Amino acid sequence: MFLKNTWYVAAWGHEIGRSLTPVTILGEKIVLYRTEAGEPAALEDACPHRKLPLSMGRLKGDDVECGYHGLTFDCTGTCTRVPGAERVPHVARVRSYPVAERYGLLWIWMGEAARADTDLIFQVEHWDDPSWGTTRGDSMDVACNYLYMTDNLLDPSHVAWVHQTSFASAACEETRLETTVADDGVTVWRWMPDHEPAPFYKPFLKFSGNCDRKQHYEVRYPSHAIIKAIIVPANTGGEGKPLHEDVFLMDSYNFMTPIDEKTTRYFWFQMRNFAPGDEAISKAFRRSVRGAFEEDKAVLEAVQIGMDNKVTRNLDLKIDKGPIRFRQRVAALIAAENAEAPTAVAAE
Prior knowledge:
2 domains; 7-stranded antiparallel beta sheet; Naphthalene 1,2-dioxygenase Alpha Subunit, Chain A, domain 1; Rieske Iron-sulfur Protein; alpha+beta
């Protein structure tokens, strides 16, 4: 169903503090909080006694006290207190999840804790580059399976119809797509030559007139994406060519965390190669990007309903090559992970 031995975004860092915050990731109930030192922690959100959510309890220092009978658990999931008991039962523990903080986001490892390696967290280019501006991100819940979202993020053509007032241009309708499959993901891309800039980009370009534009839609397994917009004056762009000095670059980072099979939490932020620290530009980006993503949300939620209730078979088109290759690889990775999982042994 889901790939588990990987990092997912659990929350924005600023959302988690000294309170117990429940979330659901891959269908698992988890409680997030910070220790007194400010370090993030993540525990299974269920006391092993009667399965009351620990998020209904309270923090006692760095430990979580169940709100039903006072069983208390530290950041590792070890039970440190059972009121009225002479000793703590060895089975009185909850699962602890590895967590890390990077790019203003809290990341959680949903698989085997021993395999959690922070070097595997998605790398954000230019994060520490003072010449680049950052549009602090946002999030939303989308009522669809996360693979419909990866389909969307491997589909540059949809902007021609879904985002007509923002990212669309006439060139988006017919220009051929290229697909590149790598070990870590799939990229669908194209250069669109000599056309009028899309409404979203036009106010921020350093040049006037027509442009050459590259759409770079890259999704890495299982559900992290970088969407690159590269825009240069007409007749100066193309694969392998050096970028024009007036190039517009925007990298949009998109992280999809499955809540369950039909709901996804979507996190994003953007980086740009101009106007660092300019809050007015960041505000304009933030407003326009969220508006475009609300358009995606409406479409994707309707797609989930349509696919759930279809009475005739859906068809695939040539433009679906990237999404199909991505889905095939994700399915293979999940199958391989499940094959490696130890077989449960029934108690005698």
